[in-house]
Amino acid sequence: MSSTDKPKVILAYSGGLDTSVILKWLCEKGFDVIAFCADVGQHHEDFEAVKAKAVSCGASKCVVTDLRKDFVENYIFEAIKCNAIYEGRYLLGTSVARPCIAKEMVRIANEEGATYVAHGATGKGNDQVRFEMCAQALDARMKTIAPWRDAEFIESFKGRSDLLAYCTKHGIPVDAKPKSNYSIDENLFHTSYESGVLEDAAATYEDSMFKMTVSPQAAPDKSEFIEIEFIKGVPVKLTNKTDGTVKTDPLELFLYANEIAGRNGIGRIDIVENRFVGIKSRGVYETPGGTLLRDAHMDLEGICMDREVKRITEGLSNEFARLCYNGFWFAPEMELIRNSIDFSQRDVTGVVSLELYKGNIICRGRTSPNALYNPDLASMDIEGGGENFDYNPADAQGFIRINAVRLKTYAALRAKTNQS
Hints:
The chain has helices at residues 17-28, 47-56, 68-81, 97-112, 127-138, 151-156, 160-170, 250-263, 288-304, 307-326, 332-344, 375-378, 395-419; strands spanning 8-12, 32-39, 61-66, 116-118, 143-145, 183-186, 191-194, 224-231, 234-240, 246-247, 268-274, 280-286, 350-357, 360-367. It is an alpha/beta fold. α1 crosses α7 (160-170), α4 packs across α5 (127-138) and α10 (307-326) runs antiparallel to α11.
């Protein structure tokens, strides 16, 4: 069968052991495999070496796309705008990267005339759901090949030794470095560590594991002072007041946020989370720049967002995080939330001053041309609300009485019930 007669498949390819075996296996199954590698800011990745390995394994070509700018502007900053956090702790570093990658994967598939996409995600994780849900939302005709759910593939490769034997048989180069005793997923938003020894929820780890951050104990003994400017909820300028560095380009700004937060020991967590497929999973994450920008953004909202709008957006933020984590980035409900968040950010413009010290982000002040905060109205030293507000403290008496009506009614019911 000539290559023009073979069905085309776009394989999400990392150059690692699993996807290299999958690439060759797909070729043996009669597919014309086009490898796709997304540059989302993996640390020290040699993409030319990845391309060469893909072709040596049988790919007809390997496409590497630099998605870093798109990732920051259209995915990370979307998460920052709504203060997204899953289960109150996880900043979605892997979750938010998947739709960015899947969208480019589908674009390449359409450009190449491919009817299949393939990935190396396991059958127990979230990524299989994220990749496939996003791909089907973007192109309902697209079919997915998931080898780690394929009975024949699983029977052939029951462990790492089987994968290595296959590589030896087919001349697939294997990284000579010893395998880490945990798995790593990395991009410019975060680095995650899970599986292996970390599957024991009580197991500790070496500090040398981390790539983006130093420990708070090893951070400098001197504070670093910065300012972050936002326009409509989006960070547009980061100024280091200590050394004068200024960043305004979105990608450069985010990378610098990673740098300064990382060297000050900011952004590490160790959690057990709930996967969409129903399994609890332990993950250790470092998200330095994301932690810094989210903290600054939340502080700015405090001065220029209405109380009830804030209450509603907190619910939207939780839903955004849940949908993103579960793979529904391109769902209509996510579109509704993102548009609602955009509306809520109309007045979230201003500057937040921060001190970074040994894992701590300490707010030192904030200003906004759209501030709802009024010093005269809030002051304990000015009677009433100042010149511009008609506020009479005596009105609070009636306000309290009205709001206490239902509490008194409930207390009376409880007293009656307890007597009977």
